[in-house]
Design brief:
10 helices; Serine Threonine Protein Phosphatase 5, Tetratricopeptide repeat; 83% helix; single chain; 0% strand; mainly alpha; 216 residues
Amino acid sequence: MYKKYLPDKIQRLAWVNTYIGLNYQETGDFLNAEKTLEDCLSIYREYLPKDHIDLAWVMTYLGDFYRKNKNYKKAKELLEESLNIYQQQLSPPDHIWIAWAQLHLGILQLEIGNNKKAQNLLEESLVAFEKYLPPTHIWIADTMVSLGKVYIRNNEYEKARKQLDRSIFIYKEHLPENHIYIKRALQIRDKMDNYMHEGLLISSLNILWCKAKKLI
């Protein structure tokens, strides 16, 4: 399939450079990460059909890079386009790579405040991941953390706790105790617990105040 569209040398260069771009991103070299990923996308756009699956692959990574750097307009355009390509080219509708694209777009929708869209995308993604992946796969944990945030915004704290507790368990299966992913999930859960405790305290004080007022 590659050889039909891409000369071997360009094929290898684009594929390797995508991972180099991701490595730049992981090490905090965002300038080189952006340039490398954009160059890869340009190569794929030049040589591949506009609905080619590998084009969607690079779009997802570049879209996620833009999201992490708060360039939400570019992120949204690329992530929606990549999901559309995956949905056109892959079946069944809950294909693992469709779910992967939904996860990234769902996280973006959460960050820009589209809670309902985020919930739909993330819940669909989680169903597919739980169907096809081992129960302690990192992608399941990633999805659950974001879903936990969605449920917190909906004041569905029991649902949120269930997602966050399981995500922390999965992360601890794979990652060191001080890993940022574990810390992040714990912080979200602890912040929710503190908020719930403060809410219960205020509610109790209001009840006591009302009772005291009747006694005066």
